[in-house]
UniProtKB/TrEMBL annotation:
Keyword Ligase: yes
Protein name as catalogued: DNA ligase (ATP)
Catalysis performed (reactions): ATP + (deoxyribonucleotide)n-3'-hydroxyl + 5'-phospho-(deoxyribonucleotide)m = (deoxyribonucleotide)n+m + AMP + diphosphate
UniProt cross-references to InterPro entries, sorted A to Z: Adenylation_LigC-like, ATP-dep_DNA_ligase, DNA_ligase_ATP-dep_C, DNA_ligase_ATP-dep_cent, DNA_ligase_ATP-dep_CS, NA-bd_OB-fold, OBF_LigC-like
Family: Belongs to the ATP-dependent DNA ligase family.
Keywords associated with the record: Ligase
Highest taxon, organism lineage: Bacteria
First-tier enzyme category under EC: ligase
GO annotation (BP), single: DNA repair
Claim: Ligase is one of the keywords in the record: yes
GO terms of molecular function: ATP binding; DNA ligase (ATP) activity
Limits of the ATP-dependent DNA ligase family profile domain: 11-197
Length: 356
């Protein structure tokens, strides 16, 4: 492979903002695997945000990229899996598997697609210094006639349209808006874009904690919500605290420590128990030999956390601590309180015409 922009290369990143800024180029924020595509003739390489190779995990994309992309180019985009009428991040996670037979089986059952939103190189020319407006025009020309597995990310310069997308696309699995200056050059590993994500709050049961990697202070708080059957389900963690606060929390929560046998998640070390209930410490291909142990706490305290959106029955990302809620009873912390986006149209998000 001999391209004007070569791997390893980290993609351009975004910083968070509370509102959609005016005067920008806007795109939906895709909830998939960020990937750079390097193509030189028949050679195609997919690399992740951390520059690791993703190529072997998405074999069905390679021919689609050869059919759809120029013979020599570098493209930035997102790998997504569509199941039904929404994006499915869990299906992407399942692809990171050591067995090639398993990867190919999943590829056949739920093929991935690639959503392209930037062009870093074309033929013998590096486009890293070119303004976004030029890169976008060249990318649109390059993808003219691409098949359905490779799509150009819809974009607009109208903030009202961006606000419409922000409200309408969330239920389809997209998690916000990305804004870029039209004159923006491409800055690898630099936070030059702006991301605007949804944030909501939920009251959760504090049911456990994990120690920080540095020692016996709080690393993360384990959160639970009661389902319709009255079972406490593990829904995520809250983990961003200054070190001094981690130490204070360890002392503050010490009276809640309990024996795991008396805890709703006491059977967490039994693999079979995870088939019927969400508990911390479940088996995962991502954890390897990582210590999954945690400290059970009596589920008596309620914490309000901020979250962006749900992935199935859990929080998609780490939540943010907002405050303790002594005025709430743990049994009031149910899934019913969560706001579920109901208006969405994945076909429109992927560049098709909106349905009525």
């Amino acid at each position: 492979m001999d391209l004007p922009v070569m791997p390893p290369l980290k993609p351009m990143l975004a910083r968070a903002a509370a509102r959609i800024p005016p005067g920008m180029h806007y795109e939906a924020k895709w909830d998939g695997f960020r990937a750079l595509v390097f193509r030189d003739g028949d050679e195609v390489e997919l690399t992740s945000r951390s520059t690791n190779s993703l190529t072997r995990y998405f074999p069905e994309l390679l021919d689609a990229l050869r059919r759809s992309l120029p013979p020599r180019c570098v493209v930035d985009g997102e790998i997504v899996v569509v199941r039904g009428d929404r994006l499915d991040f869990e299906a992407l996670l399942e692809r990171i598997h050591p067995a090639d037979s398993r990867v190919r089986k999943l590829a056949a059952e739920h093929p991935a697609a690639f959503v392209a939103f930037d062009l870093l190189a074309l033929e013998d020319r590096s486009l890293l210094e070119a303004p976004l407006v030029d890169r976008r025009r060249l990318l649109a020309e390059a993808l003219h006639g691409a098949d359905g597995s490779v799509r150009l990310a819809p974009a607009t310069d109208d903030p009202e349209v961006a606000r419409h997308w922000f409200e309408r696309f969330e239920g389809a699995g997209l998690d916000g808006i990305v804004a870029k200056r039209p004159d923006l050059p491409y800055g690898p590993d630099q936070r030059l874009m702006v991301k605007i994500k949804h944030e909501r709050t939920a009251d959760c049961v504090l049911a456990g904690l994990r120690h920080h990697k540095s020692g016996p202070v709080v690393g993360s708080l384990l959160l639970g919500l009661y389902d319709e059957s009255g079972v406490l389900q593990h829904v995520g963690v809250c983990a961003s605290f200054p070190m001094r606060r981690r130490e204070e929390l360890m002392t503050e929560l010490a009276p809640l420590r309990t024996d795991s046998a008396d805890h709703p998640w006491g059977a967490w070390q039994d693999d079979a128990a995870h088939e019927h209930s969400r508990m911390p410490g479940g088996p995962s291909r991502w954890t390897g030999k990582k210590d999954l142990s945690w400290v059970p706490l009596r589920p008596e305290r309620v914490v309000e956390v901020a979250y962006d959106h749900m992935q199935g029955d859990r929080f998609r990302h780490t939540t943010q601590f907002r405050r303790w809620r002594p005025d709430r009873e743990p049994r009031q912390c149910t899934y019913a309180q969560l706001e579920e986006p109901v208006r969405y149209d994945l076909a429109e998000a992927l560049g098709g015409r909106p349905r009525d």
